[in-house]
Design goal:
Blueprint: E1 17-18, E2 37-40, E3 43-46, H1 58-62, E4 68-69, H2 73-83, H3 85-95
Antiparallel strand pairs: 1-4, 2-3
Length: 103
């Protein structure tokens, strides 16, 4: 998916942080489809932060202990604006035929 349209993922600081003191070990975070977490005796650990989809925060929304947090989305929106990522994503989606208008 063209979420970043060529912009380096590692330059985007979007990934979860876990406060293990709040963690109730519900395991919801382990449902992550991008395999961001590893499970340890103490609870989840963010093992592959750059696997996280930029803008996704489903794990935090579903965390029973409210132990997962993300950066403020406005910091990401500033990167998208500064780097012209929105226009690049739109162009890529048009090329892939995903923004085709049905008449």
């Amino acid at each position: 998916m063209p979420w970043l349209a060529g912009y380096p993922r590692e330059k985007v600081g979007w990934f979860p942080k876990v406060d293990l003191e709040k963690c109730v070990k519900c395991g919801m975070c382990m449902n992550c489809g991008r395999n961001v977490y590893d499970w340890t005796r103490d609870g989840p650990v963010v093992a592959r932060p750059n696997n996280c989809v930029v803008g996704c925060n489903s794990c935090a929304n579903l965390c029973a202990g409210r132990a997962i947090t993300f950066p403020d989305i406005e910091t990401i929106r500033k990167i998208y604006k500064r780097e012209g990522i929105w226009a690049k994503v739109k162009q890529q989606l048009e090329q892939e035929g995903k923004l085709k208008t049905n008449k």
